[in-house]
Design brief:
With 251 residues, the protein is α/β, with parallel strands linked by helices. It has a single domain (6-248), classed as TIM Barrel, CATH 3.20.20.70. The protein has 11 helices and 8 strands. It has an 8-stranded parallel barrel, surrounded by 6 helices. The protein is globular and about 45 Å long. It starts with 5 loop residues before the first strand and ends with a helix. Bound molecules: 1,3-dihydroxyacetonephosphate. 1,3-dihydroxyacetonephosphate is lined by residues 10, 96, 168, 173-174, 212-215, 233-237.
């Protein structure tokens, strides 16, 4: 099964408005040079509108770093699917480990965000990942299975066509410690098997699973050569046009 590669940059809480627009325009050029893959950037909420305007007409996809589950209402600090759709945002990152660990988002909330996105016409990127303590205790697979099952609770076969998964081991995020290609492939194959148990086989085969955690220009090629790694969710190395360009152009 051939899955379209997906390279995504998560800008987290970085870059001013002007810096964001400049970087987005550079990434749009990288993206245009690689028509056989999807490329996405997720700027801070404050830059989303300007970035959407700046790259309008480009195949570059725009992601939000989170999404609310209601269309509107008394939810201070939240951004709704309707608001994101209005800007031309295509996808939303959901369940990032920083949201889980620093801001206390749990599986139930993450599942609500998943349904908010799907009902609002925004493609969700569901992030899951084990901590170092989980891995050292031998709990990697049970933790990931729990996060996946809860995150996808009541997501239908049809809706799964919209869903992208991201495996981001917490111990590899921002640490410079990438999972080895073997470690990442092992988990991705496990997740695909889980999807095959939860859904139909063709859905498991078609779902894109991204790897995230210290992806850089010098490890992207090896990661992308793994059969179940369909793309990358990149943090630090997505903040510079040159390094992200090389990642987009993985070989
Ligand atoms: P780094 O690439 O900086 O490790 O961040 C990964 C990440 O969290 C992407 O969502």
């Amino acid at each position: 099964m051939k899955r379209r590669p997906f390279i995504a940059g998560n800008w987290k809480m970085h870059l001013t408005l002007a810096e964001s627009v400049r970087l987005a325009q550079a990434v749009a050029e990288s993206c245009a040079a690689c028509p056989d893959r999807d490329v996405m950037i997720a700027p801070a909420f404050t830059s989303l509108a300007s970035v959407c305007t700046a790259v309008k007409g480009s195949p570059l996809l725009i992601g939000a770093q989170n999404i609310a589950w209601e269309k509107e209402g008394a939810y201070t600090g939240e951004i709704s699917p309707v608001m994101l759709k209005d800007l031309g945002v295509n996808l939303a990152i959901i369940g990032h480990s920083e949201r889980r660990q620093i801001f206390g988002e749990d599986d139930a909330m993450i599942n609500r965000r998943m349904h908010g996105a799907l009902n609002g016409g925004i493609q969700p990127i569901l992030c899951i990942g084990e901590t170092l303590a989980d891995r050292e205790a031998g709990n990697t697979f049970s933790v990931l299975e729990k996060q996946l099952r809860h995150g996808l609770n009541k997501v239908s076969n049809e809706q799964m066509a919209q869903v992208v998964l991201a495996y981001e081991p917490v111990w590899a995020i921002g640490t410079g410690k990438t999972a080895s290609k073997e470690q990442a492939q092992e988990v991705h194959a496990f997740l695909r098997q889980l999807l095959a148990n939860l859904y139909e086989k063709n859905i498991a085969d078609a779902t894109r699973i991204l790897y995230g955690g210290s992806v850089k220009f010098d490890n992207i090629d090896n990661l992308m050569a793994q059969p179940d790694i369909d793309g990358a969710l990149v943090g630090g190395a997505a903040l510079k046009a040159e390094s992200f360009d090389r990642i987009v152009r993985f070989r």
